[in-house]
Amino acid sequence: MKFFVDTADVKEIKELHQLGLVDGVTTNPSLILKSGGKITEVTKQICDIVEGPVSAEVVATEFPQMIKEAKVLAKIAKNVCIKVPLTLDGLRACRAIRNDLGRMVNVTLCFSANQALLAAKAGASFISPFVGRIDDTGSDGMELISEIRQIYDNYDYPTEILTASVRTVNHVKQAALIGADVITAPPATLRALVSHPLTDKGLAAFIADWAKTGQKIA
Ligand code: G3P
User: What local confidence, expressed as pLDDT, does residue 36 receive?
Assistant: First the structure.
C-alpha cells in the first residue's frame, strides 16, 4: 500500500519523507490556503522533495479553464498529478489531461461507487473517495472503498483507489484490509500509526534493564 501525505506543509513533508513515509502528496485548495503560500511555489517545493505523485487541484469548474489551469500546474514538475473534481466537466478534463497532456489525473470528491466507475472509464490514474466525510453523514466510508475495489477488480480497471479524508489510524487499517492501493492521511495520522502503549512500556523496561548491565554496544 502506498502512503501519501495529505498536506501542503513543506516542513512536515520534509520530515516525513526522511522517515520514508511519503510515497506521494495530495493537496487541495483548502490545504494551499492553510499553507499560506502560492500554489505554484508550494507545489514546486513539494516536488523538489518527493519523487512520487504530487496532486495539485484545478479550481475551475468548466472544461476549457480546467485545461488551462492543468497546463500551468503540469509545467511545475514532471510528477505533478492533476486533480479534477468529480463532475461531467471534470471527467472530460480527466480524459483530455491523460490523452493530450500525458499526465496522471486524480479525480477527487468521490462519494459513490458509480462516480468511481465513471472516473475509471475516463482513465483516471487515481480515484479519491472521501471516507471521513461519508462517516460524518452517519454512513460507513469504508463500505464505499469495498464497493469500488470490487467494481475495479471485476473489470480490471487500472485506476488506483486513493482512500482520502482519512482521519484515524483505523481508517488506514480498514483500507489496507480491503485492498485500497493508496491512503492519503494528514501528518499526525501517519505518525500515529507507529504508536502502541505496549511498545512504549516494553522499550522502557529494556532500557532500564540495560542500564543495570553497565554495558555499552557502541
Ligand atoms: O484528502 C482529502 C482531504 O483533504 C479532506 O479531508 O478531513 O477535510 O475531509 P477532510
Answer: 97
The reply to whether 36 falls in a domain is yes
pTM over the 0.85 mark: yes
Residue 161: which H helix or E strand, with range? strand 160-163
The total number of structural domains that make up the chain: 1
Parent domain of 29: 2-213
Q: What is the pLDDT of residues 9-44, one digit of tens each?
A: 999 999 999 999 999 999 999 999 999 999 999 999
Q: Which of the listed residues 145, 165, 167 should we mutate to test ligand 1's pocket, taking the one with most ligand atoms within 8 A of CB?
A: 165
Question: Which CATH number fits the domain that encloses residue 16?
Answer: 3.20.20.70
How many whole angstroms separate alpha carbon 94 and alpha carbon 86?
9
User: Residues with Cβ within 6 A of ligand 1?
Assistant: 6, 26, 28, 130, 132-133, 164-165, 167, 184
Residue nearest atom 2 of ligand 1, based on CA coordinates: 165
Residue the block writes with cell 479524508: 165
In the three-class reduction of DSSP (H, G, I as helix; E, B as strand; rest coil), residue 19 is classed as: coil
